[in-house]
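During the first year of the project, the team set up a workflow for recording each protein of interest as an amino acid sequence followed immediately by a discrete structure-token representation. This format lets reviewers and collaborators read both layers of information side by side without switching files. As required by the reporting guidelines, we include two representative entries from the current panel. The first entry is reproduced here exactly as it appears in our internal archive.
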Amino acid sequence: MEYRGFRLSRSKTEYLRCGFSGVDRDDGEVTMGGVVVPQVEKFKYLGSIIEESGDIDEDISHRIRAGWQKWRKTCGVLCDKKIPLRLKGRVYRMVVRPALLYGVECWPIKKTQVQRMMVAEMRMIR
């Protein structure tokens, strides 16, 4: 489907109805060109997982996994005893920490979730 240069894929298009206010509204189905667009409970947008309820637990888990993935890729530098500690710290702050903390400025975070992030970071640093 194309609207003035904008292409939209019917097979990939989905929508999320936000229930942040707690008011349950059912406005019916969303259709596009006679085809019903599926409603989802969560989706990934710009690297963050957005959930219908507004929870961020899955996004936190995703960020922790991304941080560990970057840590494993840089493990050759971070675990080498011949490399100075100062250089290891710089590599960690420039590679691993941004992957771990991407998008946290927008999170309505709770103390337990902060604790999860701190535990993951301390395990990486050790």
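The second entry, processed by the same pipeline in the following quarter, appears below.
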Amino acid sequence: MPFQHSRRQLLKLMGVGGVVFASGLAGAGESGKRKGAGHPSGNQRDFFFLQLSDTHWGFQGPPNPQAETTLRQAVATINAVDLQPDFIVFTGDLTHTTDNKDVRHTRMAEFRKIVSDLRVKDLRFMPGEHDASLDAGDAFKKHFGSPYYAFDHKGIHFVTVDNVSDPKGAVGDAQRDWLAGDLKKVGKDAPIVVFTHRPLFDLYPSWDWATQDGAKVVDILLPYRNVTVFYGHIHQEHHHTTDHIPHHSAKSLMFPLPAPGSVAKKQPIPWDPAQPFKGLGYRQVEEKDKNVNIEELSLSEA
């Protein structure tokens, strides 16, 4: 994938969500050199995936008067780019919360139908609290399967962690045990990517920007030397490091939220008709520096 030929296409994809290259992940550059059991197997060539988050299908309100078309527009934009990611992961809040069970199922079915039009058919889903906290993830499971799971792709071990089906925002003993057991299958130097909805660290607990037992989850991850975490929930770009583990958040496709603690009350940033994509995962990205390293740029946008 020559940089000079793919740059403009990558920038278009970055205008929609977080483009992440395998070669930019901790430990992935060395994955082709490792041998023996205990590591994910597969083709070690570089690849990239796209993270989309907080699409909130079903939302209506002043923070995004174009809510009925935003998701479809993102799908059309991704499909229009010749260079396609290996897979796309949606890190939660696929739909907007509702107390009506029938409406909840309808929104999930509509979301699934819209994203099925993506050219990329390897789609990975996980719930947000809007999808799962009111029914312990029951509707999500019926439409998308297990809220947590693991998979390997071209030498990288990927794990999704469900910290939203419990309305208290906890992962829970059973799932932590599962996570610990899953990671025992890979080596301590294996490149590992963790997807979660809420941050695993205490970003701003009074705004519900934390995981109740996140520190226990991080303790499970710490013995592994090459872990990267991607999450959603906070509707903005944010970067944090726990010891050697970097955490990157994705912007929302529906509406932005203010920086943690920057205002007295957490609420969506008002819609600006002059800049309709400002602060959203769907945004304008311009090519300015032809010498910029695309891997660094992709991770900064994740």
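For the second entry, the following points were noted during internal review. The first strand starts at residue 18 and ends at 21. The domain at 47-300 is CATH 3.60.21.10 (Purple Acid Phosphatase; chain A, domain 2). Both points are flagged for discussion at the upcoming steering committee meeting.
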